[in-house]
Amino acid sequence: MLRYAIIFLVVALIAAVLGFGGIAGTAAGIAKICFVVFLVLAVISFLKK
């Protein structure tokens, strides 16, 4: 999940530089969601051990 969050963040940054605001906003939102899911799964994983 962290890998996908980083990929979407890079896509958002590139889209923002090129002037595609809608795509950049969408990619940034997906990156945030992926990062939150990663954090939740990481915390659950650490608590199980």
TrEMBL record:
It comes from the Bacteria. It comes from Rubritalea spongiae. The lineage of its organism: Bacteria, Pseudomonadati, Verrucomicrobiota, Verrucomicrobiia, Verrucomicrobiales. Keywords: Cell membrane, Membrane, Transmembrane, Transmembrane helix. This is DUF1328 domain-containing protein. The chain crosses the membrane at residues 29-47. The keyword ATP-binding does not apply.
